[in-house]
Amino acid sequence: MDNAEELIKAKIERLETATEVKEPDRIPIGIATTYFPAKYAGVSYEDVWYDNNKYTEVGIKFARDFNWDAVSLHRSFESVPLG
């Protein structure tokens, strides 16, 4: 097993242990974000709004660079009319 697989396994175990209300090796850290990964990567909001591949690319960069235990990437619905 390579280092990346070991890191992923450790993160999953950490999250599962915490959700079972047991004591993990450390407190898992996760984040839910909208457009900050685009800003961090120097990509316009418009580009990530219309280009799913670009949104995925900046999301992966953000997750890898900050090494969170969990990341939830989602776009805001601020520009979508709701009624």
UniProtKB/TrEMBL annotation:
InterPro entries, per the entry: UROD/MetE-like_sf
Name by which UniProt lists this protein: Uroporphyrinogen decarboxylase (URO-D) domain-containing protein
Originating organism: marine sediment metagenome
